[in-house]
Write a structure and sequence with these properties.
Number of helices: 1
Strand content: under 5%
Shape: elongated
Radius of gyration: 15 Å
Largest sheet: none
Order of helices and strands: H
Length: 43
């Protein structure tokens, strides 16, 4: 199962909450990792 597959039915509040929180959490995690990686790269 993909990490971003929403396990809740589409017509539910849990689906909407999951979408909002998980998307922001994963996006923030990836953005921070990329910022840390870029700090080591000399351009």
């Amino acid at each position: 199962m993909p990490f971003d597959l929403n396990p809740f039915p589409v017509a539910s509040n849990r689906h909407s909450i999951w979408e909002m929180l998980v998307r922001k959490d994963v996006g923030g995690f990836v953005a921070q990792d990329l910022e840390d990686l870029c700090s080591f790269v000399q351009v």
